[in-house]
Design goal:
Layout lengths: L10 E2 L6 H9 L1 H14 L5 E5 L5 H8 L4 E5 L5 H10 L6 E4 L12 E6 L11 H12 E8 L2 E9 L2 H8 L13 H6 L4 E3 L11 E7 L8 E8 L4 E15 L2 E4 L11 E12 L4 E11 L2 E11 L5 E8 L8 H7 L9 H11 L7 H11 L7 H15 L2
Parallel strand pairs: 2-3, 2-5, 3-4, 5-6
Antiparallel strand pairs: 1-8, 7-9, 7-11, 8-13, 10-14, 11-12, 11-13, 14-15, 15-16
Helix pairs in contact: 2-3, 10-11
Length: 395
């Protein structure tokens, strides 16, 4: 099961959603083919389809090709402009309504027959993805309506990946060019990595650690645990997590190590220190994903028990421990702090107060530059700031 030579060293952070990232999602043949099969089994001629997080609009196009009468394609990102161009170029511009918004902010005239979404990151626990699906299902799906995906299952395995682990921690040593940088080790080992862990790095069987049934789920959090018996001596450097998705009856998609879906990567949760394990011992790993402030906090831990079953070693970690905060930031975040707007906040407030539907961006920018002498090098700079705030907050 374990082949240290196959342990990958390639590691990349989660990509931002720029055109290259959207292109990678489209270029993932396993992802596109699986969703196309699921849409073929789910969409019926004359259906109204809601595509949440449409991106470049590929699923919306497929739904039209399958006979959907209307498609509502929802996307908050600026890529929706590209999606509109692509739809028009393929003759579907009149059948797809593109809405630049979050799905929670839309209220179509009637219910929809099908909801399709691929809002995942490396796991389904990505920003407000599950909350968005729950809201759309409860508010917008017609009785007897259908959903893609149907369910997601999250799997975990212990990993022996010395090269990957060294890439995480090596800078944060007690002797880096004569300096002690170990204070950073706690932060980096409580930070997730998206990477391409190979099957050879897994030293245990996969265990299901959480599941989401989209027809019935009501909460956004999840937790679970998994147990393994240690069959041979090895070193555990962390956990690898991935999802297996049931898109439709008989249609699955997975980003498991060795699988074909490559756009998502796999999640590596490093341990705060490598765990040397002995044959006959047992290991329990725990995982939790908790919605917080528009995204997720991950918590993971592990307990090692001796051959006799006595606890020998344990770790408890969280991405909440991996965020570097200055003393000033901690002070400003305290529940008892009385916040007062700084210069930047005051500038934004000045602009937002003038977004009353009566003033143009040009007029607001001119007033802003006059009120903040020396702050903006040109009217173009002030106009760019006002336009950015308008894109974010105005209707």
């Amino acid at each position: 099961m374990h082949d240290s030579a196959a342990t990958p060293v390639r590691d990349e952070p989660m990509s931002g959603y720029d055109v290259h990232a959207y292109g990678s999602m489209v270029d993932d043949e396993a992802r596109i083919d699986a969703h196309a099969r699921a849409l073929e089994l789910t969409v019926r001629p004359g259906d109204t389809v809601l595509d949440i997080g449409t991106g470049t609009g590929i699923f919306a196009l497929i739904a039209c090709r399958l006979g959907a009468k209307d498609v509502i394609a929802v996307e908050p990102d600026e890529v929706i402009g590209l999606a509109e161009e692509i739809a028009a170029a393929n003759g579907y511009g009149s059948r797809i309504e593109f809405v630049q918004a979050l799905s929670a902010d839309i209220a179509p005239a009637g219910k929809v027959d099908v909801i399709v979404s691929d809002l995942r990151g490396v796991l389904p626990f990505h920003r407000t993805s599950i909350a968005a699906v729950i809201d759309a299902r409860d508010r917008l799906l017609a009785p007897g309506g259908r959903m893609i995906p149907l369910a997601d299952r999250i799997f975990a395995a212990l990993v022996e990946a010395p090269a990957l682990y060294d890439d995480v921690v090596r800078v944060w040593a007690d002797d880096f060019d004569g300096f002690d940088l170990t204070a950073g080790r706690t932060l980096v080992t409580n930070t997730t990595r998206t990477n391409w862990i190979s099957p050879g790095a897994l030293v245990t069987e996969a265990r299901s650690i959480a599941a989401i049934d989209y027809a019935s789920v009501t909460g956004t959090d999840a937790c679970g645990s998994a147990d393994w018996a240690v069959e041979a001596p090895w070193t555990a450097h962390g956990l690898c997590l991935w999802f297996d998705s049931d898109l439709a009856e008989g249609v699955t998609l997975s980003n498991a190590p060795g699988g074909d879906a490559v756009a998502y990567g796999r999640l590596f949760l490093p341990f705060s220190r490598p765990l040397e394990l002995t044959a006959g011992e047992s290991v329990t790993a725990r995982f939790a994903a908790e919605q917080f402030d528009g995204d997720y906090i991950y918590r993971w831990g592990v307990e090692v028990r001796t051959v006799a079953g006595a606890p020998r070693e344990g770790l408890s970690q969280s991405t909440s421990y991996g965020v570097p905060l200055s003393a000033a930031s901690i002070r400003r975040s305290a529940a008892g702090h009385r916040p007062e707007l700084g210069d930047e906040g005051g500038l934004h407030l000045f602009v937002l107060e003038r977004m009353d539907g009566n003033s143009t961006i040009e007029e607001i920018a001119t007033t802003l530059r006059e009120a903040s002498p020396g702050r903006f090098a040109s009217l173009d700079d002030a106009r760019a700031r006002v336009a950015r705030l308008s894109r974010t907050y105005s209707r």
